[in-house]
Design brief:
two-stranded antiparallel ribbon; alpha/beta; 4 helices; about 100 residues
Length: about 100
């Protein structure tokens, strides 16, 4: 287990360059990474490397609704990714 094994990192601009390198660094350290970038295909490619311990989210940090989408998907659909426990959410209420 790495030093970051209980952590989740949201890395923006992560489809290439420094963002991609930072995402890989977090994964190598044991963290789960959310690879967020307007380039959805590039984000998917980075998320599949090196061990696939990341997810890709097409998101532009200059668009508030995109940022909200990242937060909402982590709080609902992707809770199992973070905690290993499924937490279904319906209409904002845990069921």
């Amino acid at each position: 287990m790495g030093m970051l094994s209980s952590k989740v990192a949201i890395v923006t601009g992560a489809a290439s360059g420094f963002g991609a390198a930072i995402s890989r660094m977090y994964e190598t350290g044991g963290a789960k990474a959310v690879v967020a970038d307007p380039n959805g295909e590039g984000a998917k490619k980075v998320a599949s490397e090196p061990d696939g311990n990341a997810i890709a989210v097409k998101s532009d940090v200059f668009r508030p609704l995109d940022v909200a989408r990242v937060a909402l998907c982590l709080a609902s659909d992707l809770t199992e990714f973070i905690t290993g426990v499924e937490l279904p959410v319906d209409g904002g209420r845990a069921v």
